[in-house]
Design goal:
Keywords: Coiled coil, Membrane, Transmembrane, Transmembrane helix. This protein is mainly α. About 70% of the residues lie in helices and about 0% in strands. The protein has one domain. The protein starts with 15 loop residues before the first strand and ends with a helix.
């Protein structure tokens, strides 16, 4: 047994899922995204340790983006426009909450993987034993999860592409409105939409941080924030499905016969 006060080191094999887990009727989309981000790995992967590397880089980059946004709020100049300030603060808070969730999942990977294994095995057993009514409940849950994922992801991705398109257009045709950090700091110009959301250049006027940094931070935001919110929804709907099936089976039991046999 590990001694108290020591840190347990997990083997990569303990954090892998079976290939059929990624076809789970409720968690399918999210598990495949988690595999891409590195939070879970498949037993078929030749180098599963690369998933841990990706997960570490991914989690660190989210926290770095969050730290830069919060640093901008507290140390840099104020906002002349109330809407700009509210938008920037709302973005920073969203990143902060997701940063906490991703860090917790990273530190508790064994528990997360165990939970996913248990849910997958339970759903597999359910599909083998379920009658038509219970399978209808499962299909209804599956449609709901897909719909809510679509409704949250599509607007997020569309808004992200609008910000990217605006930045690309201005970089090519109006570069003076993009690379104007000095004028923005003096209050003589307004930053473009992408830099309003991620004003990293106002902290450190560098091409990689001020220009490419917001691009990467936006790509994290439009994918990660909807992913985590809809994953929690999947967990809630899975629990709801279990309760619905349990309630149906309890109502179908002949309690009077059971009571008579006991007496």
């Amino acid at each position: 047994m590990p001694q108290s006060g020591t840190v347990k080191m997990y083997k990569v094999k303990e954090l892998q899922l079976t290939p059929d887990s990624f076809d789970n009727p409720i968690f399918r989309i999210h598990l495949r995204c988690f595999r891409w981000y590195g939070y879970v790995a498949s037993m078929e992967q030749r180098h599963p340790w690369l998933s841990l590397v990706r997960c570490t880089i991914f989690t660190s980059s989210i926290w770095l983006s969050c730290a830069l946004m919060l640093l901008r709020q507290f140390l840099a100049r104020g906002y002349e426009n109330l809407n700009d300030g509210a938008t920037s603060w709302a973005t920073a808070v969203q990143y902060f909450t997701v940063s906490i969730a991703t860090l917790n999942a990273y530190m508790q990977r064994e528990r997360v993987v165990l939970m996913l294994r248990t849910a997958h095995a339970d759903l597999q057993q359910l599909m083998l034993e379920a009658d038509d009514q219970e399978l209808d409940l499962l299909r209804t849950t599956q449609r709901y999860v897909r719909t809510i994922t679509f409704l949250l992801w599509v607007p997020s991705v569309v808004a992200g592409f609008m910000a990217w398109s605006d930045c690309i257009y201005r970089t090519i045709f109006l570069p003076q409105t993009v690379f104007n950090t000095a004028a923005v700091l003096r209050g003589e110009a307004q930053p473009i939409l992408l830099f309003k959301l991620f004003p990293f250049g106002e902290l450190y006027d560098n091409f990689f941080i001020g220009y490419l940094g917001p691009w990467y931070a936006l790509s994290l935001g439009i994918t990660t924030i909807p992913l985590w919110h809809t994953f929690i929804t999947c967990l809630m709907k899975y629990v709801t499905l279990k309760l619905q099936i349990l309630n149906k089976r309890v109502l179908a039991m002949d309690v009077s016969t059971y009571s008579t046999s006991k007496t």
